[in-house]
Write a structure and sequence with these properties.
The protein contains eight helices and 14 strands. By secondary structure, it is of the alpha/beta class. It has one domain: Acetylglutamate kinase-like (Carbamate kinase, 3-Layer(aba) Sandwich), CATH 3.40.1160. An eight-stranded mixed beta sheet has the order 5-8-2-1-11-13-14-12. The chain has a four-stranded mixed beta sheet with strand order 6-7-10-9.
Length: 258
């Protein structure tokens, strides 16, 4: 069994929450893989360098200057910080971008209808599962940031949720795989203002209904789109939960229609 876990930027930005998560992740037995977002470090560094941050519908536009900042922060500072924390917990982690060992390739997103700059999209077969298997068989725990490449010397900024789904799909070609998205909520909520409104299970049919009535909207949609794509491509189970509940049987479980 391979366990793939993705943590969001809000966890990365909170030292105490990140430390709790790393301890819980270290306690997972067997083969495991971690994917992390970038948090607000890139925005802060951009401000210090007088590089404007441009967002369209909550998504970062990655100019060449912004790509440089994101690469420094995501593949450097944040990635190595997490790797060092895992080493302190006895996990022999290795920090990776998609360019390392050519393990993840992406294609630059078309400029129309919206030009997001140096942003990449990953195909279903974009992750090299044989290289991933070699790392896991060597006893290493891969830690992926959200930077990858196109195979022609261009780095690309990718959505970390998408990378998590693609890595989980590749892992499922090796062994049975589960994918967990950890963020700052208990799971998918029917009402974000009510802590008792957790939706415990979502199928594709229910997902379509919840999108149609607006219960699920904004940033949760791409997360769930990626999750159901992973299930459709062989991942056994996807769970969305609070990072503090990584070791607990809580959260929202996504499963196929029966």
């Amino acid at each position: 069994m391979i366990t793939v876990v993705k943590i969001g930027g809000n966890i990365v930005d909170n030292p105490e929450a990140l430390a709790r998560f790393v301890r819980a992740f270290a306690g997972i037995g067997g083969k495991k893989i971690l994917i992390h977002g970038g948090g607000k470090e890139a925005t802060r560094l951009s401000e210090r360098l007088d590089i404007p941050t441009v967002m369209i519908e909550g998504r970062r536009v990655t100019s060449r200057e912004t790509l440089d900042v994101c690469t420094m922060v995501y593949a450097g500072l944040v990635n190595k910080r997490i790797v060092s924390m895992l080493q302190a917990e006895g996990v022999n982690a290795i920090g990776l971008s998609g360019a390392d060992a050519d393990i993840i390739r992406a294609t630059r997103r078309p400029a129309k209808p919206v030009d997001y700059g140096f942003v990449g999209d990953i195909a279903l077969d974009g992750v090299n599962s044989s290289t991933l298997a070699s790392l896991l068989d060597a006893g290493l725990t891969p830690v992926f940031c959200a930077i990858t490449h196109d195979g022609s010397a261009t780095l690309l900024n990718c959505n970390a949720d998408t990378i998590a789904a693609a890595v989980a799909i590749a892992a499922a070609r090796i062994e049975p795989t589960t994918l967990t998205y950890c963020f700052e909520q208990p799971g998918v909520m029917a009402d974000i203002t009510r802590s008792d409104s957790l939706i415990k299970e979502i199928t594709p049919t229910l997902y379509a209904a919840l999108k149609a009535d607006g219960t699920i909207n904004k940033g949760m949609i791409p997360k769930l789109d990626n999750a159901f794509r992973a299930i459709g491509a062989g991942v056994e189970k996807v769970v969305i939960k609070h990072a503090d509940n990584l070791a607990n049987e809580t959260g929202t479980t996504l499963s196929p229609d029966e």
